[in-house]
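Slide 14.
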Amino acid sequence: MLMKNNLLPLLSLSLALSLMVSCSPKVEPSSATLAPRKEAQIDSLAQRYLQLQRFSGSILIAQEEGIGYYKYFGLADYENQIPFKTSTAFKVGEITRLFTDILWQRHFEKGAYHLKDSLPAAAQEFGLKHTWASFLQPDPNIDYGLKGRVLESISGQTYEALLEELGQDLQLENTALAEGPNLARGYLYHNYRGQGLELQEAPSYSPELAFSDYGIQSTPLDLLKVLEAYPQEFQKAGYLDNDGFSFALKHDPQTKNSLIVLSNRRHPVAQEILQSLEAILNGAEYQLPLLREPYTIESATLADFVGGYSLNENVNFSVYVSKKSLWLEMGSMNIELIPQSDHQFYMPDIDAALRFERDSSGQVQQVRLLDGFLDSDQIAHREK
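Slide 15: predicted structure.
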């Protein structure tokens, strides 16, 4: 049983969502713009991630004055060289759960229900004994596929029909459950043929399994309309493990700031991009990922990195110098390490790098294993 004070957010949510139809958000291009320096920084940030093949898609930044930044980078379809359009949709993964929660709340608003009431008998046939209050509250541990099927049962409508009604009320133009003609193609970037890193069209998830859990496709503009209608703070980032898309969203209803990053790359770097966007907007320091291009380094310096390293009791590797290059040896594998700075080296056929870190005396004592990200908690310590 929920305590009374836990019902207050639900009551606020109920009131706000009941106003959706009459107060649909109007997301249109506006005169709001970012300072030229910040816009240039975001352009450079996006281009760098695109150049590294970790991102391809859209960045949208909305503030109280309106949309301040909205651009696309890369292509919607690389095989056919099709560019992005404002109507291009992305699979948005677990953001689908936000839609599912809103659809549940809308059905609650339509009926003569009370938060303390038990769910209808149709829901209980699925083995659910919840009250409305407990089931309306967003819960990352609940089966959202089941939540969608229960909603169909108690409403007498398909999930897709309920989504279409929401789309009409919020004036969503390119949001759907089924894959439509405007959907971008999703991609992986890896060494899948033993010929080096290259793009590969990703396999597609099963719509039946994705359903109300992670099956929706949408656009930045449509998502902004939903976020502006959603009366609570919302943040979600992730990627589709069995597809080729990633995403990151952050919405603050108090400041009316929204950040949206959608990508047709499976690489889950969208959250990293979003954090850099926040830093740029706040005038704080941020970091560009290093280019995967050879960097000139003194050959004598390579000896500083030579030695054995231990990640854990089961993972050990050695770093050695051969033919004026640094190499990594792990079991039967020997991988050349290409310098991209004076202390970071990348692997040519894997989107990974090693960043050697020195102690206060200037001696290399550990190496950080970077798997296509700016940072990592995977640290291998130098063996003494």
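Speaker note: Confidence is low (pLDDT under 50) at residues 1-31.
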